Amino acid sequence: MNDLNLYGWNDWLFQQKEASDYSGFIHGRIAVTHKTCYEVVTETGCYTCELTGNMLYGKEDSELPCTGDWVIFQVLDADKGLILDRLPRRKTLYRLKSGTVAEKQAIAAHVEQAFIVQSLDLNFNVRRIERTMLQVVAEEIRPVLILTKTDLVFEEAEVKAALKHLGNKLPVCYTSIHDPASIAKLRSYIGRGETVVFIGSSGVGKSSLINQLCQKEVLQTGAISGSTGKGKHTSTRREIILLDDAGVLIDTPGIKVFGVTSDDQDKLSEVLDLSRFEGACRFADCQHVNEKGCAVIKAVNDGEIEEGVYENYLKLRKEAWHYTSSVHEKRKREKSFSKMVKQVKKKPF
Ligand SMILES: Nc1nc2c(ncn2[C@@H]2O[C@H](COP(=O)(O)OP(=O)(O)OP(=O)(O)O)[C@@H](O)[C@H]2O)c(=O)[nH]1
Ligand SMILES: [Mg+2]
Ligand SMILES: [Zn+2]
């Protein structure tokens, strides 16, 4: 018997299930997402499930179930099922689907914390932390920065200086798989029944950390390429691992670029610590680009805001704007297409 409370089941989810047309069927949490099917954990065991046509038809990619989602399904066989409904989501981590301009991809649903993992060799990059953080806080998920491989040589003072503006919004945890005390500290961040998603480039040590936390080899880990110093995409699927008596961990494959979809400017200013200047801009709707009396630009010129931070602010805003306007364009095209189809249908042949 699995205790689904350990997997994060709670009263809110129970109410969502009650409100579903399919409340009479059993529910479970998606533990692994495959190409066309899902592994779903329930109280009585694990089922491999497919989606009904209804669940698939006319859906955007980001609306399809993903790892961490709670679903209702019909049992077909001893270990097979058909997903009838997905419960409403809270705190879902999205990113721009790579190779697209207007498609979101859901990485993990119902997550309380995101561990943004970077290794202290060549992977540390504060601009990448900022963009990931934006997507995380846009969904009210708590970010924690995990800097791995402290056993290797790195410039601690440089790292600390680069992170200064992220301050208390981003707790930082230094780890090494060769230092058990650092793993114990990491474990203390994870509350009972809480879901934590691990995100970062390939080779930074996400799966290694999960193995250390579980004190056994639950996931395969990979070597780093000698020529590029990068990982070789060892993990290929998003997968839930239950941490005994603690929380739910979600391992993800390495991500090259974390494309943003959140156009919440206030959140972006908060993340980058620009909000404290914005109030002093001459115009209430100041965009901080070239307006007279802009306190943000003044702070950049006075060296109070790092130039790199300000440049990333503009870049992330532009990317988010590009995504939002592409989505808008796409919807407009879809609308006019369905209008045309309707008109064609009305015409007598
Ligand atoms: N020196 C050192 N090596 C580590 C540490 N953590 C992980 N590694 C090594 O880094 C390599 C990659 O680790 P993985 O855990 O597979 O990395 P990953 O982030 O899961 O990579 P993908 O699954 O490809 O996204 C392995 O050879 C690990 O042994 C660490 O703390 N110190
Ligand atoms: Mg991995
Ligand atoms: Zn301004």
UniProtKB/TrEMBL annotation:
UniProt entry keywords in alphabetical sequence: Cytoplasm, GTP-binding, Hydrolase, Metal-binding, Nucleotide-binding, Ribosome biogenesis, RNA-binding, rRNA-binding, Zinc
Annotated residues for binding of Zn(2+): C281, C286, H288, C294
Origin: domain of life: Bacteria
Uppermost EC category: hydrolase
Cofactor note: Binds 1 zinc ion per subunit.
Cofactor(s) this protein cannot do without: Zn(2+)
Family: Belongs to the TRAFAC class YlqF/YawG GTPase family. RsgA subfamily.
UniProt xrefs under HAMAP family: GTPase_RsgA
Protein name: Small ribosomal subunit biogenesis GTPase RsgA
Native organism: Sunxiuqinia elliptica
Gene that this sequence comes from: rsgA
